[in-house]
Structure formats: structure tokens, C-alpha cells
Amino acid sequence: MDLVHKFDSFLIFNAFEFIFSFFMNQKLSRNAAALTHATGAVALNAVHILWPNTTLFNTGVVWTTGYFLYDIYFMLMYEKINKIRLAYIYHHLAVSYFIRFPPKLYYTDQLLFWGELSNIPSYFVYHYLHSEPMSPKLTWWLQTQKIIYGGIRIPVLTWIITMGLWNKSPNKLPVLLAMPVYFMGLAWTAKLLKK
Asked: What domain range is 95 assigned to?
């Protein structure tokens, strides 16, 4: 049953991309589908953090896993596989595995909430970079991206991982498998701050 729901979510993101493609090119429609995932993940996990509920948490897991399946499928079918694509595939698989663990012990809801919240400005940067590259909106979103992404990835996620997750999780294997994703985020933060 769980696999069926994840496949349904995979189909939903394909449908989002299809609908967005009536209004924008394929790159921008994929970006809009990614923004839809991020905002949905932030909303689902925020509500779960405030009012814990197993059904709501499972819906968030299905939502994110479905998006990751959609994105992996697209990369494998339509893009050249390089180191960056392999890193994205690892990210998607590691996070899809990690988020299956209980949020009380692994902070999965908080990590998804903060991680996806930090990504939201990136989708606006991508949109303006590919639609209005000379727009002052692009400059504004680039600065916002640095502040939000760096302001969340370094202090917030580092605190959750070091003070909570590592000390509280009973099984360290999921944490160890997810750690490269954390380091990818720190590397991207460093790259953003150098610009």
C-alpha cells in the first residue's frame, strides 16, 4: 500500500509539471514542480511539528518520496548523468530512506521542514535566472537565497544534527547514510557565500 501511495505521488508531480508546461518551458515547469514539492513539504512538516499525527507525517513522507522518484526518473531519462546528478540521486535516495524513521527519535519532520524551507529561494533564483536574467528581482532573490539557505543550513541544521539527532537516535546507520547530504548542504552554502 505504501508503495502505491508513493507511486501516486510520483504521478502527481508529473501532472504538476505537465500543467505548468502550458505556461512555461520544460526547465521552468520542472522548477515549478520542485517549488510545489518544497512548499508542500514545509507545510506538511510544520503542521506535524505543531500537532504531531502519524497520518500527517506519513503523508509528508509519501509527498517527498514521490517527488524524489519523479526527479530521479527525469534525471535518468532525460539528462546526462554526471557527478552533480549522481549527488542528487544519492541525496534523494538517502533522504527517502532516512525520513522513514520516527520523527521523535530522528527529527525527520524538523529536518524536512528546515531543509525544504532553506531551498525555497533557490527556485525563485532559478526562475528569474532563466526568465528575466537582468531583472532586479533576480538580485533580490540571490541575496535572499544566501541569507535563508546559509542561515538555516549552518546554525539550525547543524544544531539539530549534532545536539539532537546524533545523541538521540537509537540506530546510527540512517544518520550516517544521511550525513553526506548534510555536508552537500554545507558545501553549497560555502559556494553561495563566496558569490
From this structure: 2-194
